[in-house]
Amino acid sequence: MAMTDFSGAFTALVTPMANSGEIDYEGFRNLIKFQMEQGINGIVPLGTTGESPTLEETEEEKLLEIAVKEAGGKIPIIAGAGSNDTKYMVKYVQRAKDMGADAALVVTPYYNKPNDDGLLRHFEAAGKIGIPIIVYNIASRTGRNIPTSLMVKIADIPNIAGVKESSGDINQVGEVIREIAIPRQKKGEKFWVLSGDDTFTLPLVALGGDGVISVVSNLVPAKVKALAKAALEAKYDEARALHYELLPLVKAAFVETNPAPIKLAMTWKGLPSGPARLPLGSLAPASEEFLKKTLMDMGII
Question: Has domain 8-233 been given CATH number 1.20.1250.20?
């Protein structure tokens, strides 16, 4: 397994689109350049924020090709490779490896609601490809939480490198760090624990985690990186100040289903973005007003 550093702030990249719904590939290239100029620690293309459920395979391949060309070797790339069908997940993990990503992000299979045996075998199949796997635990989208007792078993699978924790439960986050990350650290090994929720970046790192895969860093990457860095360096006064500074933006960015709000915010800021694809629709007028007021109050637009 490659000893890539997956700590700090990673951006769950949006996929910019024209009003016609066609992907703006040059805009995507420019977004990666913007992220790197702002000092982001890594990027995550083809995730939920990148609207992977509505992307064609040919589109995904072109986006990943651009990401590797622009960022590969300079900052780590964790490529989204999830599916609720193990066969397709394996195909996407293999693609991530073949195209030069540093790791693959594999979400808990959604809709199927697999039992423990199915989940374990799903991630065993991912681990066999030979690229670091970041497990993505997000019950709010998949309908299936991975309890810590099962995560301990999954973490023992070769090439399982860490977890993007989006359970929404800080107690579970702490359990994962206590039961997996800390014992590994004592043995000189590493199990990366990254927050999948911008709200939890500071508490997760304070408990011993490694950083965040962030949505709001699409808009303010330098701020999110500064928060993660301060927390990782135990500069908690600075980290708290940044946490509270960013909190209104985090709330506004999730006023409706991600990534519709963050894409609209990016459009207002002049960053390549465009609308989300259906079935995600336009924000309700009240949500749009709340988002715009928050961004104006914060001086972002």
Answer: no
